[in-house]
Design brief:
The structure is a single chain. The protein has a single domain, classed as 2-Layer Sandwich (Beta-Lactamase), CATH 3.30.450.30. The chain has four helices and five strands; from the N terminus they run αββααβββα. Strands 2-1-5-4-3 form a five-stranded antiparallel β-sheet. The protein is globular. It is α+β, with helices and mostly antiparallel strands. It is 38% helix and 22% strand.
Amino acid sequence: MANEEELEKICQKIVKLDPKMRSARIINSRGHLVAGGMKKGLMSLESQKQDEMMFMELALRVRMRREFDSEFGQVHFSMSYRDKVIVMSFPLANDDVLLISAEKDLDFGKIPFKILKIAKPLKDVMKTF
């Protein structure tokens, strides 16, 4: 089982993949931040209260996507290309999720697959905090 310190290291490793990365966060199945955060020197685009609501909504969305696994296969990641930022989510074990944000000009054809390799151990061993 990964402890909080190990999870923080994984988040930092992901943020360091590319200078255009903004944040890497691990959210538990109840929508609470477990590890990670914004890259040093950057401000979040949303308030803390909005973060909390986004985390809860994301946790629910990850669980709901599993409804179609038998028809389409397992979700490995989802991505939203927004006006101000790219947001990616990676389902982990126990309905936990890795939430990534990046600048819009990130190479989103390659980075998600690098993140999948880094996060692979968390898909099998992470326990909800």
